[in-house]
Amino acid sequence: MPTRIEPQLTTLATKVPNGGGSAHEVKWDGYRLAVHAEPNEIRIITRCGHDRTRYFPAIDDAVRALGPARFILDGEAVVLDDKGVPNFGLLQQDLGGRRAIRAAHKAVLFAFDLLYFDGHDLSGLELSSRRRLLETFLEGETGAIPSVGRD
C-alpha cells in the first residue's frame, strides 16, 4: 500500500460549471483528511502529510468497523450543527481550539473519494468510477462515515 497518495485539490469557482469534463464538489467546511486503513493500523493524515489519527477517534472506530480491507479514503472531517450543517467553528471547538489540543469526538468523515483499494491504486481512474466504487464499499454504513449522498 502506498505511504501517501496526493489529494486532488479543488479550484474555487463562483458558479457550478456545466458541460463535459468537469465536476463540482460541495465545500464541507472542515479538515481535509486521507484515511489510510490496513488490517492492524489506521492512519488519519492531513493534506500536508501530518498524522492526526489521535484527534479523530470516532472516525478511527468507524474505519475499523469497515473490515480488514486495505484502502485510502479521501474526505473531510466535519462537526455538524443541530440542523445537520457542517460548522468549522464547532470542529475547532471540539478539537479544543485552532491548535488541536484534544480529540474531536463529534467529528464525522464525509468520504468523497476512494484512492486505493486492496492492492489497486485507483487514482488513475475517472472520478465517477471511483465514486461508484466508494458508494458500493460504504453502502449501508452510518456513524462517523455518513454517505455524502445520504439525506
Mind explaining what this structure looks like?
With 151 residues, the chain is α+β, with helices and mostly antiparallel strands. It has three helices and five strands. The protein has helices at 57-65, 88-94, 127-138; strands spanning 31-38, 41-46, 71-78, 108-117, 120-121. A hairpin with a 2-residue loop joins strand 4 (108-117) and strand 5. The longest helix has 12 residues, at 127-138. It is globular, with a radius of gyration of 15 Å.
What features would you highlight for this structure?
151 residues; alpha+beta; D-amino Acid Aminotransferase, Chain A, domain 1; five-stranded antiparallel sheet; 3 helices
Give a concise summary.
By secondary structure, the protein is an alpha+beta fold. The chain contains three helices and five strands.
Uncertain spans: none
Please tell me the total number of domains: 1
Helix residue percentage: 10-25%
For the termini, the CA-CA separation is 33 Å
- Give the helices and strands as they follow along the chain: EEHEHEEH
The level-1 CATH class: Alpha Beta
Total DSSP helices: 3
Q: Per CATH, which architecture? A: 2-Layer Sandwich
CATH superfamily: DNA ligase/mRNA capping enzyme
Major sheet characteristics: 5 strands, antiparallel
Structural class: alpha+beta
Shape: globular
The CATH topology is D-amino Acid Aminotransferase, Chain A, domain 1
In what order do the strands lie side by side in the largest sheet?
A: 2-1-3-4-5
Strand content: 15-25%
